[in-house]
Amino acid sequence: MLRAIDVPQTTAEALSSLARARDALVIGGGTLVMPKVQAGISGLGALVSLSRLKLDKIAIKGDKVTIGAATTLAAIGEERGLAFLQPAIESVGSPTLRNLATIGGNLFTEQPYGDIAVCLLALDAEATVATKRGMKKLPVAELLKKGIGRDAIVTAIGFKKPEKGTWFYRKAMRRAANSASIVTIAAHCSQSKGRVAKARIALGGCGTKPVLAAKAAAALEGQKLDADAIAKAGALLIQDAAPFTDAYASAWYRARVLPVHFRRAILGE
Amino acid sequence: MPSTIVTLKVNGRAQEFLTRPGTTLLDALRDSLSLTASKKGCAQGTCGTCTVLLDGKPVFACLVPVETVAGRSIETLEGLAAGDVLHPLQESFIALFATQCGFCSSGMIMAAKGLLDRNPDPSRADVVRAISGNVCRCTGYEAIIDAVLDAAAKMKKAAPSRRKAAE
Amino acid sequence: MQDLEQIDTSFFSAEREAELDVVGTTVPRVDARAHVTGKTQFYEDVSFPGMLHLKMARSTRHHALLKKVDTSAAAKVPGFVRALTHKDVPNNWYTILRLIGVEPNDEPVLPEDRVLFAGEQIVAILAETAEAAGEAAAKVKIDYKDLPAVFDVEEALKPGTPAIKPHGKNHFVYEGHHCRRIRFGDVDKAFAQADHVIEHRYQSAPIEHAPTETTGCIVKPEGDGRFTIHSNTQACYFTLDNAALIVGLPFNKLRVKGGTVGGGFGGKVDVIVEPIAILAAMLTQRPVKYAYSREEEMQVSSPRAAERIYIKDGIMKDGRIIARKVTLYVDAGAYSRHSPYGTTKAAAHMPGPYSIPNVWVDAHCVYTNRTPSSAMRGFGVTIGDFALESQMDRIARLLKMDPIELRMLNAYRDGDMKAHRKKAEGCALVEVMQKAAEMTGRNLPERFRKMSSLNKEGV
Q1: Residues with Cβ < 8 Å from C128, sequence gap 6 or more?
Q2: pLDDT exceeds cutoff 70 at C412
């Protein structure tokens, strides 16, 4: 049962709130935490809300993007400068959910939810984390693996906007909208002279957290983005993936369709 | 468990009430303010029956701790009609059989209002998208989509005359 | 609405006794205005001062003996009021359909020494808030001794499979028989004469109704020995009568206030939440609310039964079906609820809306350690129809016949004797298919256009 909910005005206050209560949890939009609160998870004593910390600004300077951690997915979806992310945003929940769900919260979602975290991993984004000892930068890849510890707060997420034609996204769902991921593919393939210079591929539905498909990415580098190279890379995706079985799809099915949706993502089929 | 006093602007009126920590906006509306049009179908943010407008945007009231929205503006289905005069969405939901058991209707209408307030001329796809967070087990959705489009058309037709009246 | 306005009155014009004037017109729903203004009062829209919340500690096992149930840790949760076990239930054993003579009482309100399915309610916890009740329920400690569980209907009926039910059999007993049977003509003789014999197996999974409003009730003691039950039951009087028998009160001490249901689809005709909530209100003299969470609705409310159906048909080259043998299994899950009745309906529905001279049906109502199944929209018939009509399409493909013509040829007509010995009346099946063919632009041959439900033309 909850003892308290703090709605601090500053990050410093939020950190000391967290430090005071060992059984406190950070709450952003509430879409992850409140279902747990209402299902009665034991041992949760307090919530520390990010709603008044003004962590909801989007700043775009050239190709450098910084998004406040408590920015809603709806606000990101409406940002013209981030149009490349719109298909990914639209694939998450419903417009009503996206009015609450935040980009920061997405980093702490367990698959098959959290498609924006898949995108951030592919973008090699970096999180700004506030701790008692000050601010630090943490690659999203590392954050997804290790977390941030219970008395720290993600305040912002930064990444470089991909060049036109180098960003690819596809989410396979049971329904056209408002459905969890069967598999999600986000890929950033920078190109030079018609060949892939550098590739970074992230997958959803292939582990409890988004995973990087390093072997498939390496196979794409130096190649033209044609059907042949995509098929070869697609066959390697599974080597970095651990698809699971849940109510949406079986592990077998996820593994089977992963290369198909990868091809569709890259070729825009 | 210390309770706190929370003030909300609900359907245009400031409302003050005492709340226990972690109380959802939905429970506050239903239990503290007796505004029971918004329903609790899942308490998980997946059924949409609790949809209300928060500063004009649809949200799932079951996911919002009420302390975090203190001072903000909430619209519920109870505030939609002006006395006996129904909102066009309400009229269209009746006329086109968009309500059957009625349990999803409050959330559906509020999600639709959130759409029409921002986009008075939605396409069918826009409507589908706007209500994609709301589950209906009776109608099969088509009647609801028709009703929202019908209301939008009625409001568009009425809009010029309303403007004139305002002048 | 366009299609509804074009009622074709040319059929059966001689049979019409009165001018029907509602079909084809638009009649507004009487409840719509209250629905769209939020004024409709669902059961959960009332609340009372001092209301207690009831949550269940539930079985985590499919089939197990209850060795020890310990509520001491639960009792320490702030807000805990009391726990209820089977010992608190005056008449613990019941079955919903006992009201129409179904026996035996095979379900305990709260289990005594064993649980038969995962999710079965064991101990009711009453607390001042829903959160406290939930936390205390999670702290009820239950020691189990697991027993072998059975999940498959045919497995359950095999000799040697341990019986999970007190009457020593894994099936409902129909007047001394192991299943509901229909015998009409001689199928074996007909199979021997048939040009083709085909047999196929069909099966379905359980289907949850998933109403947007979960099952629940609020019971209020009125202070005069009477209790008002605010419920979303689809069956007010099933609930009232069964609950009165369980709690040992005269029927006139209970008043069910129902009728407003946030989606039922058959999922709210069982009597699960009300008896225990009434008992809790009797024992505490406080209002009590027992509402399923969404998870409980999905996990423990009765779904549509899973069915397995074998259909064997004897067919002549010209399309006539001369024999149909159906072996049907309804998975009732752990308790009877409405499944013995659903299985009877399934049997009576065979062999579908067709006049087949030789029919043999064995419809089994089988107990397994799965969530008890019960009513849902045409239960007993829906899955049977899926199987029957799939089979009809397979016959049409086998004979290279038009599937509509195959069905018209075999369709029952007025006066035909059905397999379960009811005379078919007011069939109209032939005419419906004629009209459907016309509306979909299919030109039926003269022979089929001249067919009628009123005579044997064209057979």
Answers
A1: C52, C53, C79, C81
A2: yes
